[in-house]
Amino acid sequence: MKSYNVAVSVTFKKPMKINACCGDEAIAKAKDILFNTDVIEFTENNIDSIVCEAESSAENPCDNCDEDCDDDCCSEEREYLYDELY
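Given the sequence above, the corresponding structure tokens read:
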């Protein structure tokens, strides 16, 4: 069995009304709300996209010599997978 490094990226969009004097202040307030409170609750309706990426781990043994092999002549190409789930 092989080992894979998997990254799941989820993009959320949550429209909010924020009172501020300028755009920079509005962004600063939004960051504060996001990182320092539990005021924002995300639901399935807020999901913009979900992407999974997987790449075979460097720890996978070589199929030819059954060891962790960096020899280009011996090892197979690293497997990379990408799937957009939503």
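The chain has a mean pLDDT of 76. Try to locate this feature in the token string yourself.
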